[in-house]
Structure of MarR family transcriptional regulator:
Amino acid sequence: MNDTSTSLDDAAGHRLRLAAARASQQIGVVLAPHALTPIAWTALRQLHDSGPVAPSVLADACGLTRGAVTKLVDRLRERRFVVRAAAGRDDRRYQTVALTGAGATLVRELAPLVAACDRHAASDGAG
């Protein structure tokens, strides 16, 4: 039995998916000149907002596996946007990831542009 009491255009989930797709596309345009992916942006923004964190915390915040975040951090480190540092003197296996000055500058530069994309996509999906 099909429930057709709500049209697809009226379904909240459908509107949210469309808004998310629009935001992702627009954010991709903003990030492309900087050779960043949306997930790389998410990691940089997370580090900006939280400060240095363990890679496992960054993985959870980005929705990535630990292996995937290691590769992402390696790529961001090669571009000098992040650094790894030993978190303690007793156990050098425990590291944190932190933004560099260049990474923080990039986040400050891009944050208003990404926020505008989010706002624009949300307002388009509201009607």
Q: What stands out?
A: The two ends are 29 Å apart (CA to CA). The longest helix spans residues 101-125. The mean pLDDT is 86.
